[in-house]
Amino acid sequence: MSRARADEEEYWHSSKFRAFTFDDEDDELSQLKESKRAVNSLRDIVDDDDDDDLERVSWSGEPVGSISWSIKETASSSTSSLEGRDSSLQKGSSSYAAFPKQVSSYSLSSLFKGEVPHIQYGQMALSDTGVKNYAPELRRPKAEYKDYSSDWSPKDTVRRMQRGKVCSLERFRSLQDKLVLLDEAVAGHDGNVITAVLIFLKRTLRREILFRELEVRQVALCHLIHFLKETGEQKFLLDLLRLCFFSLSLQLSQYREHLNIQDVEKRREFLKGCIGLPFSAEDTSHIQDHYTLLERQIIIEANDRHLETAGQSEIFRKYPRKASILNMPLVTTLFYSCFYHYTEAEGTFSSPTNLKKTFKIPDKQYVLTALAARAKLRAWDDVDALFTTKNWLGYTKKKAPIGFHRVVEILQRNNAPVQVLQEYVRLVEDVETRLNLATKYKCHDVAIETYRDLKDRIQLTAYKCKVERGSADEEKINSILNNLVRN
Amino acid sequence: MAAHLSSGRVNLTALREAGRRELREFLDKCAGSKAIVWDEYLTGPFGLIAQYSLLKEHEVEKMFTLKPGRLPQADVKNIIFFVRPRLELMDIITDNVLREDRGRSPQRDFHILFVPRRSLLCEQWLKEQGVLGSFIHREQYSLDLIPFDGDLLSMESESAFKECYLESDQTSLYHAAKGLMTLQALYGTIPQIFGKGDCARHVANMMIRMKREFPGSQNSIFPVFDTLLLLDRNVDLLTPLATQLTYEGLIDEIYGIQNTYVKLPPEKFALKKQGEGGKDLPTEPKKLQLNSAEELYAEIRDKNFNAVGSVLSKKAKIISAAFEERHHAKTVGEIKQFVSQLPHMQAARSSLANHTSIAELIKDITTSEDFFDNLTVEQEFMSGIDTDKVNNYIEDCIAQKHPLIKILRLVCLQSVCNSGLKQKVLDHYKREILQTYGYEHILTLNNLEKAGLLKPQTSGRNNYPTIRKTLRLWMDDVNEQNPNDISYVYSGYAPLSVRLAQLLARPGWRSIEEVLKMLPGPHFEERQQLPTGLQKKRQHGENRVTLVFFLGGVTYAEIAALRFLSQMEDGGTEYVIATTKLINGTSWIKSLMDKLEPAPF
């Protein structure tokens, strides 16, 4: 029974008392642990060198000759399992790591190197390995001497890593082993381990191979993308995104990049590049709009900044701009252009009508925005014009696509005088809403007339207390009341 | 300090104790005086495990928040970083360590405690920056399930839902499974596991696997929980989107409760300060802890807000009457008795004052026109009215540039209540949102689509009415004062998730097979064998205990509904609630939004 195993069991037995402890090295001196860790990391470096060596001796890229494969093969034959046991004994001492090469797979693999017949068997054994990896029960007996550190299966390795133990991944050398390791990690759902394995793969696999394998492993792919985003490896990320352009979300994450570009010109260029990406038809049109909008904003901004500094335009002198229009939403841009460029001809980029046409802004949205902008400037004539339509006989008529109660609210928020306000309150169709608004905003005329039309004596009398004593309004109420009596 | 944890059916103090013990053990490893440098996010959850006094007993003399630059002067032997395993935090730590004056003597030792666990990635990162060797102890503190109240556990893992559904990262599920293993180690193996949804399936699988891999986990503790119900948030996307109408739910909706604490605008609490003489009006927000340790709060928190006022006024009368007693106290004995009750009465009075103030604050909002309009639209959607066309109120809100999250909550609610929106309606909303709030929000809209909250109706069939009717999700005759059904928590809408729990207990899920199939993900049942000696022989009339684990978050209203079921006289089941995170619609949508600004670090 190995130490690790004993510890796991000990953990669960004792977990009543120490429920959160997952470290098996509690009892050791911290210094020892530290030195062990240092040595372990040293081994990583040594192993790295091995890797290079072995790249050269492997058989035409086939995983047959891989170290892990050969170790598994040896371990299942009785002689070498004895060897394994011996070495595990050696390894039992804490200094084992100081002799990394002594029992390393390196020597075992070179053992095979010279023996030709093994290559043929090796081909068969390959599929065998696969089975064993996917059905680990078959390898149960081996679990007996787990201490032999290079002997952990991908599954065991993942388990150990999940428990936060230091594991060298370098012994997974063949592509297949690496992929099994990755799949095991993904099956364990532990992002920490998945990322660790991915870093290892990223370091040891050629990009094309890594990308190709990730294409069919979406979960792992997401983890890698997330990792690259976090570590800011932009170039690698973009390469990855370019190669895996099959998924919509990935194109969006490329589009997302524009947010990190501060320079507007560069940002515009970048957005232009995004238009070509295979988005859904609808997203493409939004991104096209985004690009067009920024392009517009750059032109407007340059122009207006010039106008403002020149100091010749009255509107800019009177209402200096609070912020630049760059990167603002479309509706904000429309408000801006209704505010500063309302009267411009449709041909100019900054005119509201041009914006409306280019971006197919719905009437409702346009009227709301224009109304808010003109009301803010207290340009009541413009407000009036917004709602005036002429029919073919030349009669004018008031019409609003948003309902006049909304118009009233917006005007009121912009402190419109009662005279202006009541004109629109009067246009509210629903009688109850009209009365409410009239009362709320003190448009006495409208309220009084409405009650008169309703012939509602009681309400009208009650309304008297809302108007000033001795005012024209009070007189008006009195005269109506008298009239009503006479009728 | 933690009496409220033992008040429930399951004594959660044991879990807290286990957490404290581990913390003490770690602190004692770093011998000598210490300073802790905190990842600010962790201070809240840690506060639920231990107070400063515990740390002080173990020679923690100073505490700082983690920020870049030189570490503050502190004459201590050890500097310990308590951090989440995040790369941006590692950068700050690196900066701290590199700026440490190497010439100073005595030198300070560095340690790092990862919460909830060590990350190979972070250690690799530190190694690359060349500072990994500076840390003597690098350990992990598995703060998986934190006891919040006598019947409530949370992992406080903010982004669990996002990670599972947007990033295909199921690490939080792994932690959930681990938390459940810890819980079983303390409270016995849970014999029955039910679940609904993909994430639920994953967690159950992991638990079973973990159990198999550690044969030693067969413990000999008599099981406290009879049943575990794993519910994937994905199964019920509707509930968090609706505005919660319980007292606690509204506090959370309006002010946000963080780790049982809420920060409130100080104006309403200013009066009491007068006694302190000449102090200015407080400008700092008033911070209050909210849990069942406060008697009054325990009584009112799960009530519909409309029923809170009457309780408060009744309490006020009782307390004034109690204070009046002093006039009747004649004998020394009577006076003595009165005085002995005084502290309790004063506590009750200040508690009453606080909650009256909070209720006033909330009432200001719930009586506003906009709150009413918003609620009306929500209730129309949930009862199935006009879910298939563009809603005027939503359009108006967009035109007036109401907060984007509010808009998204409503649009998503409409989408969920219609099994997806008609393409034309969806396109219209999207266009309006992008034009008004900025095109970059296409990223957020895409996230919501990916999470299933906002989607086109693909099947051409709206399943929601069937689900609503079968599960009785909409109740017209709701009684807010004396509820007889869980639907009181949303004044009409019965949370789907809790209905599933209710129907599981009685008459069982077999009765709703058809509807279960309409909801996403598999539903399943697993049994964990118990040794014969540990099998429960139920006393007659003894309630079963069910642990309901919400994977992806739970709202206070859902918790209230489950507490209501626990208290039902003939209910037969008591519930303990666990979750990855306590959420409300706003915090949930926020977690799904694309972060448009860079992180503050």
Tell me what the structure shows.
The complex is a heterodimer of chains A (487) and B (601). With 487 residues, chain A is mainly α. Chain A has 26 helices and two strands. A two-stranded antiparallel ribbon of chain A has the order 1-2. Chain A starts with a helix and ends with a helix. In chain A, 35% of the residues are buried. Chain B contains 23 helices and 15 strands. In chain B, a hairpin with a 2-residue loop joins strand 6 and strand 7. Chain B folds into four domains: 141 residues, 3-Layer(aba) Sandwich (Rossmann fold), CATH 3.40.50.2060; 185 residues, Sec1/Munc18 (SM) protein, domain 2 (Rossmann fold, 3-Layer(aba) Sandwich); 107 residues, Alpha-Beta Complex (Syntaxin Binding Protein 1, Chain A, domain 2); 92 residues, Alpha Horseshoe (Serine Threonine Protein Phosphatase 5, Tetratricopeptide repeat). Chain B is of the alpha/beta class. In chain B, the strands form three sheets. In chain B, strands 6-7-15-14-9-8-13 form a seven-stranded mixed sheet, sandwiched between helices. At the A-B interface, helix 1, helix 2, helix 7, helix 9 and helix 11 of A face helix 1, helix 5, strand 5, helix 7 and helix 8 of B.
